[in-house]
């Protein structure tokens, strides 16, 4: 791992700190190293290249130069009983950051829980991980990977990148937008009813709302109409018999995919 620059205020979010690296194994893993060493959190780590990037469910995440790789460390984020809402907070923030950096409006749609889509193709990945530290402190890391200039072939989904769509957005400029927007969204989320606003913003970008979808998990596969998000951000689907089911985890696909 190369040496980082010293910590400095994060772009557009002076209450957060920021480290920049040329090459790391994983920005998420480095955040956890900082947490175990006693860092108080609110720390961004960004890298030009990751050699061991990972996605949800242990999948590999391709991390070539030119794309954006950044992770945010939060220690004991409050409210602790609503940490499960953070993936949707992160998705809304990243979608707005892409619009801000690209000069677009509602360019990005959201696929539950936190994938960004443009014209049905996957633009990014968001990975939330947590770990209990010494003294019962809770480290939560939000990791972001965004295809700015290139995209890998994916076995499960079609992928895309901003440059191939005609948008010239550097990893650095996108990170600056994300740092500022996510600080604002976290401040909203911490309010007693703050997730209502986040949920509304998420649904405003929902890619498959009202459409038939299939949700696959390790245990089951369920098909129905994407009806809503519940008050905690879980997926609500209506099945053919009219019954509604709440889905807490899984991968969303369109029928036939």
From TrEMBL:
Domain BPL/LPL catalytic: 17-190
The entry's keywords: ATP-binding, Biotin, Ligase, Nucleotide-binding
A cellular-component GO term for this protein: cytoplasm
EC number(s) stated in the UniProt entry for this protein: 6.3.4.15
PROSITE patterns the UniProt entry points to: BPL_LPL_CATALYTIC
Reactions this protein catalyses: biotin + L-lysyl-[protein] + ATP = N(6)-biotinyl-L-lysyl-[protein] + AMP + diphosphate + H(+)
NCBIfam families xrefs: birA_ligase
Protein name (Swiss-Prot/TrEMBL): biotin--[biotin carboxyl-carrier protein] ligase
């Amino acid at each position: 791992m190369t040496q980082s620059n010293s910590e400095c205020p994060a772009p557009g979010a002076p209450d957060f700190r920021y480290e920049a690296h040329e090459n790391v194994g994983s920005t998420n893993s480095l955040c956890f190293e900082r947490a175990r060493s006693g860092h108080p959190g609110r720390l961004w780590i960004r890298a030009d290249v990751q050699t061991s990037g990972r996605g949800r469910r242990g999948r590999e995440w391709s991390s070539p130069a030119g794309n954006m790789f950044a992770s945010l460390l939060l220690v004991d984020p409050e409210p602790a009983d609503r940490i499960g809402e953070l993936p949707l907070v992160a998705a809304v923030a990243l979608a707005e950051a892409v619009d801000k950096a690209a000069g677009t409006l509602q360019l990005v749609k959201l696929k539950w829980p936190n994938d960004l889509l443009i014209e049905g193709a996957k633009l990014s990945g968001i990975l939330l991980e947590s770990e209990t530290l010494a003294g019962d402190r809770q480290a939560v890391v939000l990791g972001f990977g965004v295809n700015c200039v290139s995209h890998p072939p994916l076995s499960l989904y079609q992928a895309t990148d901003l440059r191939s769509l005609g948008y010239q957005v550097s990893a650095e400029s996108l990170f600056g937008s994300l740092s500022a927007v996510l600080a604002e969204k976290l401040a909203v989320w911490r309010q007693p009813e703050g997730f209502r606003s986040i949920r509304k913003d998420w649904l405003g970008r929902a890619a498959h709302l009202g459409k038939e979808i299939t949700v696959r998990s390790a245990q089951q596969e369920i098909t129905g109409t994407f009806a809503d998000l519940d008050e905690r951000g879980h997926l609500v689907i209506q099945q053919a018999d009219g019954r509604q089911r709440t889905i807490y985890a899984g991968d969303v696909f369109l029928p036939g995919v």
